[in-house]
Write a structure and sequence with these properties.
Number of strands: 9
Radius of gyration: 30 Å
CATH architecture of the largest domain: 3-Layer(aba) Sandwich
Structural class: alpha/beta
CATH topology of the largest domain: Rossmann fold
Shape: elongated
Distance between the termini: 68 Å
Helix content: 40-55%
Strand order of the largest sheet: 3-2-4-5-1-6-7-8-9
Order of helices and strands: HHHHHHHHHEHEHHHEHEHEHEHEEEH
Number of helices: 18
CATH class of the largest domain: Alpha Beta
CATH superfamily of the largest domain: P-loop containing nucleotide triphosphate hydrolases
Number of domains: 2
């Protein structure tokens, strides 16, 4: 307050605190008076309610009104527009003092940012107090938390400088060209590889900010693929992979990871008594690898989208985060009362896409298919067969459909089609891989995949060939 020593200036004074900065409020008003062309910019960042000091709020409202009317702004025109403030102070004296004591109009943006941040902080506390009172009044916890979360998100958006939300392409070009150069020189990769070269031909990387949907019928191997991608990120890249399983326990997931990594039949691991002498070295090696792997499991079947978001934020803050996998979207609980399942899944899908962009990590979402493929001659699914909501297809950057025709010799031998049916950043097509169900993993086909003339002509699954056991990537 040293810059404003006049004891009659702003008589209604409240001590400075982390919840308001009168110095910054004074400087915002002073900057607008000294340099009226700043009014457009500052009024786009602030509103009257952002000001804690009532006199600053009143002057801000007056300045914005005068500017919108095309009136010239200086201390005299302010006085002519309104001679006294609501508390009786002389506008001419107050405006002159604020203009004279403003350090620099060049820092007006910084002053406004401080005012906005303190304003948001006050509203956060007010919202918390309202939530606390509602809980004490006996309102349901889930309902209070749901509405509270919406308030937090709105306040978080308000605290962001809107100019940081957009950039001219000239400002983006250096970053884009540098990224091309770094990838060309193998300094960085576009995203995480899948561990399956035939699939990587279509998807050059599981990229940050992307929502990847893996869908299939029950038993097709969608969980195998989803968990396999998480294992790949944790074991080969050393980045944290967070897996939400609303269908299986964390012990069941761990058993599958042990089978996959250690090449030990899952049946032996699950039964225990059927473990053979040849299994133990593989199991021991898998335990050693997974023990040091940043693979995090969450098996709470009652999770809502809000819960998932909060856990992801916590993990990223405390451990870092490379990828999120959710098994599966159809089991996530909705937060809206009396909403249809279609509406619930639609909102969850949108939330998953927002989560990927917010956290800047790939989010792999597992989903089920409807019964459409069973009515087709080749039983091959398409992205339109995604169950519950068409919004899943719309939000996805990549859709991979896991398909295995168990009525064909190829399917019985484990040959599986990974159908890339949507790919915003690359080609679509079919990758043929080997499903090793006993190890709960997918691997490349031994010797590759060679379609027959009949398959090429009829677009039916390949028949009449002997298949090997496949090879791990």
């Amino acid at each position: 307050m040293d810059r404003y020593p006049d004891e009659h200036l702003f008589e209604t004074v409240v001590d400075e605190s982390k919840l308001h900065s009168h110095e910054s409020e004074y400087a915002v008003i002073g900057s607008m008076i000294k340099q009226p062309e700043l009014v457009d910019d500052l009024s786009g960042r602030l509103v009257v309610s952002d000001f804690h000091h009532p006199a600053c709020a009143e002057l801000f409202e007056l300045l914005v009104a005068m500017h919108s009317q095309g009136r010239a702004i200086d201390i005299v025109t302010l006085y002519e527009a309104r001679s006294h403030l609501a508390d009786g102070q002389n506008v001419l004296q107050v405006a002159a003092k604020l203009a004279d004591n403003t350090p620099s109009t060049a820092n007006a943006g910084a002053y406004a940012r401080t005012v906005k941040q303190r304003s948001v902080a006050r509203r956060v506390i007010a919202a918390a107090q309202v939530m606390s009172q509602r809980l004490m009044d006996g309102e349901p916890l889930d309902e209070v938390l749901s509405q509270g979360q919406q308030a937090w998100l709105a306040l978080e958006a308000e605290g962001t400088d809107s100019r940081k939300k957009y950039r001219f392409i000239r400002d983006v070009l250096p970053e884009a060209v540098d990224g091309i150069d770094r990838r060309f020189n193998r300094m960085v990769s576009l995203g995480y590889d899948t561990g399956l070269p035939s699939l990587d031909e279509f998807i050059p990387g599981i990229c940050p900010g992307h929502m990847v949907v893996v869908a299939g019928e029950p038993g097709s191997g969608k969980t195998t693929l989803g968990l396999g991608l998480a294992e790949r990120v944790a074991l080969h890249s050393g980045d944290v992979a967070l897996v939400f399983s609303l269908e299986m326990t964390d012990v069941e997931l761990t058993n599958r990871a042990l089978a996959s990594v250690g090449s030990v039949p899952l049946k032996h691991i699950s039964e225990g008594h059927s473990m053979r002498d040849s299994d133990w070295p593989g199991l021991t090696g898998a335990v050693a690898k997974l023990n040091d792997a940043p693979l995090i499991l969450c098996d709470d079947a009652s999770l809502t989208l809000r819960d998932i978001r909060q856990i992801c934020r916590t993990v990223k803050r405390e451990h870092g985060l490379g990828m999120v996998a959710v098994d599966y979207i159809g089991l996530i609980k909705g937060e809206q009362k009396n909403a249809s399942r279609y509406d619930v899944v639609t909102e969850i899908s949108k939330g998953m896409k927002r989560l990927a962009k917010e956290l800047d990590v790939p989010v792999v979402v597992l989903a089920q298919l409807n019964r459409g493929p069973k009515a087709r001659a080749n039983k091959r699914p398409t992205k339109s067969d995604l169950r519950d909501s068409g919004q899943i297809e719309a939000d996805a950057d990549v859709v991979v459909l896991v398909h295995r025709d168990n009525d064909s010799p190829a399917g019985q031998a484990g040959v599986t089609e990974l159908i890339v049916d949507k790919n915003r950043h690359g080609p679509t097509g079919i990758a043929h891989v080997q499903h090793q169900g006993h190890f709960h993993r997918f691997v490349e086909l031994a010797g590759g995949y060679m379609p027959s003339d009949e398959e090429v002509e009829m677009a039916r699954p390949y028949k009449g060939r002997q298949y090997g056991k496949g090879k791990a990537a």
